Amino acid sequence: MNDDDDSDFAGLIPGVRRLRSDRINVYQHRQRKKPVAQPRRESAATATGFPPEATSARDAYFNSGMQTKLQRRIRQGQIRPEASLDLHGFRQHEAQAALGQFVGDALQRGMRLVIVIHGQGYRSQSDAVLKPLVQRWLASQPQVLAWCPAQPRDGAGGASYVYLRS
């Protein structure tokens, strides 16, 4: 294209000007901000050792640094639990003590995935008691990287896979 063609073209379309460079600076455009990991809030424990009722129980928790593939393998039950704890028939304070001891022993033995059977609360006079308390306690522990409901073969909603820090 010569200068005459440029001026003719520029005269046809107002506001058009010649580019100085044909390269695009991709860093000039707004970059996507990376999410910042929020630290876990430490909450005061009640007399039973569980976090207070105000903390809502969740169905699952995965540490933000865990790989998606590992999360999927845990959820799908592709990693077999190395130990299990059955809390059926325990009172709240007994369950907390047993769970703390169990997690401590599993960490000491170098276990990564364990299963905690807490039940679904069908025999309770109200809603489930142990399940939400166990979930809140697991969520408050720094050595617990993830927990989620177990597969049907392992107890479904009445049990939780717990993935521990190495």
Keywords for this structure?
166 residues; alpha+beta; Ribosomal Protein S8, Chain: A, domain 1; 5-stranded mixed beta sheet; 4 helices; 5 strands; 13% strand
Description of the molecule:
The protein has 166 residues and is α+β, with helices and mostly antiparallel strands. Helix content is 27%, strand content 13%. It has a domain at 61-164: Ribosomal Protein S8, Chain: A, domain 1 (2-Layer Sandwich), CATH 3.30.1370. It contains four helices and five strands; from the N terminus they run αβαβαβαββ. Strand 2 (84-86), helix 3 and strand 3 form a beta-alpha-beta unit. Helix 3 (92-108) packs across helix 4 (130-139). The longest helix is centred in the middle third of the chain and has 17 residues, at 92-108. The relative contact order is 0.17.
- CATH top level class name of the domain at 61-164: Alpha Beta
Query: Mean pLDDT, as a whole number?
Result: 79
Kindly report how far apart the N and C termini lie. Answer: 66 Å
Individual helix count? 4
CATH topology of the domain at 61-164: Ribosomal Protein S8, Chain: A, domain 1
Structural class: alpha+beta
Rg over CA atoms, rounded to whole Å, is 27 Å
Give the DSSP E fraction (strand runs of 2 or more residues): 5-15%
Proportion of residues in helical segments: 25-40%
| N-to-C order of helices and strands | HEHEHEHEE
Number of strands: 5
Q: Provide the spatial order of strands within the biggest beta sheet.
A: 1-4-5-3-2
- Examine the secondary-structure arrangement and name the CATH architecture of the domain at 61-164: 2-Layer Sandwich
- Provide the low-confidence segments as ranges: 42-57
- Specify the overall morphology: elongated
**Largest sheet composition:** 5 strands, mixed
